């Protein structure tokens, strides 16, 4: 039993270290340090190239209150994947605003996955394989079974909260 527990711990440790969170690398296409692969929100908002714009934009964004009331009623057990570039101007603007919307509707952070890509919109180890990422940021909304409900690509058509509401209204 002790031997089996040791093997299990080794396997878990290997899996965790294989997917290092908040990995820094140098992106030659933009000649700057970036985050790559799966990130935590804390890792993202403290990353120097992202942090400089995050706080002022997050604080200044005022989502439409009527839309937010409707949105809060519709959010259940959806999952959201945020694919961004820490080098990308649109990501630096829209991700803080999107997080503000999610915070105001009390979206569970455990239901969100954040993935940073390089200047070629690629990540390592197949992290974004099959997601068809053409532009960043891309916010992908899934139902609890993993079916994609919709996405906001690069920038909203109306507002972030308006586009998110439209995606969630389609499922109803």
From TrEMBL:
This is Thioredoxin domain-containing protein. Transmembrane segments: none annotated. It comes from Pedobacter ginsengiterrae. Residues 1-18 form the signal peptide. The lineage of its organism: Bacteria, Pseudomonadati, Bacteroidota, Sphingobacteriia, Sphingobacteriales. The keyword Methyltransferase does not apply. Keywords: Signal. Residues 51-172 form the Thioredoxin domain. PROSITE patterns: THIOREDOXIN_2. Pfam families: Thioredoxin_9. CDD domains: TRX_family.
